[in-house]
Structures are given as C-alpha cells and as structure tokens.
Amino acid sequence: MLRWFIPGLRVKRWLLLMIIGMAFIGLGIGYVQVQIYRQAEVPEIFYYLTLQFLERWVRAVIVGGVGLAAFGYGFYRFNRSIMETVRGADSQPLIDKLWDQRIGARGPRVVAIGGGHGLSALLRGLKQHTSNITAIVTVADDGGSSGRLRRELGVLPPGDFRMCIAALASDDSLVAQLFQYRFGSGEGLSGHSFGNLFIAAMAELTGSFEKALLESSKVLVIKGRIVPSTLKDVTLCAELRDIRAEEMPVSANGDAPAPLPVRGESSIGKAGYPIERVWLEPGDPPAYPEAVRAILDADLIIMGPGSLFTSVMPNLLVPGIAQALKQAKAPRVYVANVATERGETDGFSLSDHVAAIERHIGRGLIDIVIANNHIDPDFHVPQGVDIIHPELVLHTSSARVVQADVADDEFPWRHDPAKLAATVLKLLEH
C-alpha cells in the first residue's frame, strides 16, 4: 500500500480529483435535500434517519467515514474486476505495473554481464530499483539440458537466458515458476527445464534465437531485456596446469610439463586442475550489436558475479564486447564472488580474480571491485569452498575496492540479491 504514495506515479492527482468531484456531487444533492426538508412535511422517522439527535460535527464524521469507506471499497473492487479481465495469467499487482512504467522506466541504465546463478541473483535485486536493465549473457554453456538442446537442435544454449528471464519476471508469477520447472522423469524429458524447451521451440517458431528471447520475455512481462554477447556458436576452451606432471621428475632435456587443453565449458571445472587461461573457438566471434549499444549507453556496467572462467570471462573474450568496455563512459564494476568455486578458482584471493580478468582482456577495464566484508566464522561453508577475504588494495590492478556486506545471511557463500543491488546502485550516488 505504501508504494501508492511514491511520487511520480501520476495516479494520486486523479484520485484526488475524483474525490473532489464526488464531494461536489454530494454537496449538490445536499442542497436539494435541504430544500425539500424545509418545505415539505416529512415523517418523524427522518429525525432518526438523519441523526438529528447528534451534534452536527458527530454527524459529519459518521457520514463522511461511511462515504469514504464505501468509496474505497468500491474503487478496490472495480479495479480488481478490471484487472482480472485484462491481465489473464499475469498476477502482477497493478501498483507494480504502474511502478515499472512510471518510476522504473526513469531508473538508471544498468548493464549486467555474466551468466549462471550469479547473474540471475544480481538481476533479482536490480529489478526492484530500475526497469532499464540489460543482461548480457554468455552463449558458451554446453552442459546439462542446454548442452543437449545445443547438440540436438543446433540452438544457442538457453539455460542461462532462462534463469535471467525468470529472475526479471514477477517473483510470484506462476509462469516464471513454470519456466524454472525441471522434468525429473520421462524418456527424453528427464533433466530438461520447461523454459529451455520453450525458448528452443520459440527459436524454431520465430526463426532466430534473438526473437525467441524477445517473445519469451514478453510472455513473462520481464523488467528489462536479455541479450546474448554473440550469436556465434562458440566453444570455450581452457589450458590447465597438470599438477601431476609437476610432481614427476624433470625430463632429461629439462622441458616443463605441457599444459592440458580442454574443450567445452562443462569439462573445464570437472577436470580439477588449475586454469592457466581460457579462450573461445572461433576466436573472433562478432558481438551482438544490441549488447554493444547497451554498454555504450549505460549509466553503470556490472561484470559478475558468477563463475569466473566459465560465466563472466566468455562474454569478455568476445572482441566487440571488450572494445565497447574500453570505450564506455559509465563506471565499470566487477562484483567479486563471495567464495571460491571448486574446480575453477580453488585458493583464489580477491587479487587473483581481478588479475585473471586483466590477464585475459587487458588492464584498465575495471574501475571498481565490490568485495564482501561480512564474514561470519560460525558458518560452515561447503567442503572445498573458501570464503574470499576482502583486500583494501589489489596487488596488480588500479581498480578501487569497495567493501560491503553483500552475502546472504543463510548461505554466506552466496550473494544476497537485495544487498548486492543496493550496494551497486549506491556507486551512482558518488
């Protein structure tokens, strides 16, 4: 109810005009009633019906209160009847629709770059503050349901896009919950998410993946838009350090152990060896034009959170995306993960995360690093996962570190969407 009083909705002024109009109508009726009452003989019961045995101010309070209650309840029922007719399956309250159109549309233009659960968590927090959100999502995923659809149907992997669409939709939307539903049984269906199948089918129906994303976003009435970093079918490759070979005796000619090459995003983390570098094949995929335009027009650019090498980095390895980041005028923020990720960033510090990005795409593309400083020693994190301690100064980067409590209180190795969004948007105030 309090959101109805937010300035700028352009609703209160018309509601006030309606009330004034009703008051004038009541005053006009009152003039006629007084004239009739003074000139005509009325039964004695009208003495009680008009509450003349009470003081005038008491009568005014009673009649005014009853009238206001009747008007409010009538307006509520009228609005509910209209909305039930026009909204169909969309359960978004009217106040939320008005906020999106009037307030959220004037919010800052925010670009979020990444993929996986980290990006969707950020989007869930951002949508409470602005509707001008552009999520740039990786297309390198090749595991699980997305990988199967990619191999069998030749579509771009829909999984990360599905999570972002659900994150930007209304939290209580039944369609959003349906998008996230995963089949647990059924030949050919087990393991697939309904949203993945929906996007893949929409791509077949519309003839392109980008149109499929647009139409799917319309179905869920999301706040913002979701675009791929590239439409090229790319494969993420990695060079791993073979720690087993390092423990073996040095060869007679003194050669260092050869790095292990790995192809496929889903295979990189499973290998369990330290990652030296990652790259895309083909190495020069064209950036999606809408993604580049969003970066250049943004008020704030956010990279992460998410899996460093398999969610965040694949977007930055697209040459057009990296070039747009260099030319962008908006602050470029990297949201560091709260904890390390097994098989990918084991033993990494905050500096290691930033150094890995700058080693791949060059220095000077990160202005600010957001690091979590809420570390509760009483929490037990999953085995093999370490909470990343914030550092006031990065060892190799010129980026500034901003420390804040952005961790989830229940799961301290994850980000809290509301805390993270509030911290990120505070940067614009400064």
Arithmetic mean pLDDT: 86
CATH superfamily of the largest domain: CofD-like domains
Output the structural class. alpha/beta
Largest sheet: 7 strands, parallel
Query: How large is the radius of gyration?
Result: 29 Å
Sheet-strand content, in percent, reads: 5-15%
Reported CATH architecture of the largest domain: 3-Layer(aba) Sandwich
Q: What is the CATH class designation of the largest domain?
A: Alpha Beta
Shape: elongated
Strand segment count: 10
Strand arrangement across the biggest beta sheet: 3-2-1-7-8-9-10
Count of DSSP H/I helices? 17
Distance between the termini: 31 Å
Number of domains: 2
The percent of residues in helical segments reads 40-55%
**What order do the helices and strands follow?**
HHHHEHEHHHHHEEHEHEHEHHEHEEH
The CATH topology of the largest domain is given as Rossmann fold
At a glance:
This protein has 430 residues and is α/β, with parallel strands linked by helices. It is 47% helix and 11% strand.
Which helices and strands occur, and which strands form pairs?
Layout: H1 12-39, H2 45-49, H3 56-86, H4 94-103, E1 110-114, H5 116-126, E2 133-137, H6 144-153, H7 159-168, H8 174-180, H9 194-206, H10 209-220, E3 225-228, E4 235-240, H11 243-247, E5 260-263, H12 265-271, E6 275-281, H13 289-297, E7 300-303, H14 308-316, H15 319-327, E8 332-335, H16 350-361, E9 368-372, E10 400-404, H17 417-429
Parallel strand pairs: 1-2, 1-7, 2-3, 7-8, 8-9, 9-10
Antiparallel strand pairs: 4-5, 4-6
Helix pairs in contact: 5-7, 5-17, 7-8, 9-10, 13-15
